[in-house]
Amino acid sequence: MGSGRLYAAVAAGGFRRYATYRAATVAGVFTNTVFGVILVYTYLALWHEKPHLGGYDQAQAVTYVWLGQCLYATLAIQGGGAEKDLMERIRTGEIAVDLYRPADLQLWWLAGDVGRALFQMLGRGVVPFVFGAVFFPMALPTDVTPWAAFGVTLLLATVVSFALRYLAALSVFWLMDGMGVNQVLTVTGIFFSGMVLPLNAFPGTLGEVVRVLPWAAQIQMPADVLMGETDPLGAFAFQAAWAVALLAAGRLLQSAATRRVVVQGG
Amino acid sequence: MGERSAVAEGLRAYRLIAGMWIRSSMTYRTSFVVTVLGNLTVTGLDFVGILLMFSQVDSLGGWSLPEVAFLYGLSVTSFGIADLALGSMDVLGARMRDGSFDTLLVRPAPVLAQVGADRFALRRLGRITQGTVVLGWALASVDVDWSASKVLLVPVMVVSGAAIFSAVFVAGASFQIYAQDAAEVQNAFTYGGTTLLQYPPTVFGKDLVRGVTFMLPLAFVNWVPATYVLGRPYPVGLPGWTAFASPLVAAVCCVLAGMAWRTGLRSYRSTGS
């Protein structure tokens, strides 16, 4: 079996695994829709007080909200994707089985997480987004080019998101318990990805800092590309640079970990 | 067994189980302190979001920052108390799927007390602390001509709010007995509810405000009584006395949630696994 086919099979497995929980998916759709409605109203009140905050008009702010709800589970903004299983496998020692496989550890987990992300977007993300488009005025392009560019940014955002969470998961080799790291993932994910407020509406220096951090690649970039607020090529370059840097850091940490690994359990 | 002794029995069981979980979490003290701090940070983020908004504007929906902080502090403190008491109820679906719910049914203690105290997490004090701090700041900085009734209304709001949120938790758990795999629906009403109440009612559409006033009366946690304290008219045009109706609303909610719970338990069928 070619290695391409192997990783495709792993990705398909990730997709199917999440597709099994249908009631949970429907419940998730409902929750994301409710939160979307609450956020839309608060953003509209905010943009009513200060029109063109962060360079967005009201329709763009609304679009941003629903995109955030669509990508929340897709990009595991709060954590809870592949890294959760990886941490558990490191803790229990089952990671030894993964290391023994004739496949690359990082690519193996990336493939699984891409499959998970694809399901979360189709199963859980699209419906709240469509709901938003039907009931609230949104700023969506009618042209096919921005949508295509948006697709590319989504793929890159998925890789950046995974690379960050992979790094966090590897730390369990040293920490033995992922609880604290998970909390850090949640806090940084929600705050720096712009779930609280679009990053371009952050004030002053804080705004400048959060817009160059890797989390900016996750919701802000796809949103700006879709709404034509940024040059797509610049966005791709930003996301790809973070993806490469974080994946490389993951490789380094991974080799350090596997050199000193002591398998837990027995 | 009379109704009164059943309640006493439930409270006793709750205290014993919760005590066991507290002792267990205290085994690793540093870890406990770290998780409390983590919990404080996670829950504090939404207030940071409000502060970020107010770094750009002076008012939201016509309300100033201290007024919004007043709503926020009330909502988060009430929710925090309910979450501390009954927050573990969202694992009910998982317990039913893996069959461990059946174990609770055969134990000689009220099921609601067992489920509520299950994995009792003292780290949730983080949310209550955070809510109280914001509430304290809001009380000090809000521009209100304090009277005895207004001062008294604040603790009444916190307690009634906690009871209303507790009823939502129990109702959500009853729903999970039917839905089994839908814990997130409960999150929409619990976490969604507390998020909604952190912002002024003037921000939201009329229908949404009507919905959380008359259908799911979350508005009585803080919106309705707080408009009296702050001297504002309530958006749906409720009469003035409703500002004092929160305890009554809370009592009705608790009775209804209790009935839903009993009905749910009676209809429970084990998965057999």
Automatic annotation (TrEMBL), chain A:
Source domain of life: Bacteria
Q: Which UniProt keywords apply?
A: Membrane, Transmembrane, Transmembrane helix
The name on file for this protein is ABC-2 type transport system permease protein
Q: Where is the signal peptide?
A: none
> Does the keyword section mention Membrane?
yes
Q: Which residues cross the membrane?
A: 21-44, 64-82, 121-140, 146-168, 180-202, 233-253
The family database entries (InterPro entries) matched by this protein are listed as: ABC-2_transporter-like
Please name the Pfam families in this protein's record.
ABC2_membrane_6
State whether keyword Cell inner membrane applies. no
UniProtKB/TrEMBL annotation, chain B:
A Pfam family found in this protein is ABC2_membrane_6
Domain of life of the source: Bacteria
Query: Which protein are we looking at?
Result: ABC-2 type transport system permease protein
What's in the keyword line of the UniProt record? Answer: Membrane, Transmembrane, Transmembrane helix
Do the record's keywords include Transmembrane helix? yes
Matching entries from InterPro entries are given as: ABC-2_transporter-like (IPR010390)
Name the lineage.
Bacteria, Bacillati, Actinomycetota, Actinomycetes, Kitasatosporales
Q: Which residues cross the membrane?
A: 32-57, 69-87, 152-171, 208-229, 241-261
Q: Any keyword Transmembrane helix?
A: yes
Instruction: Give the species this sequence originates from.
Output: Streptomyces collinus
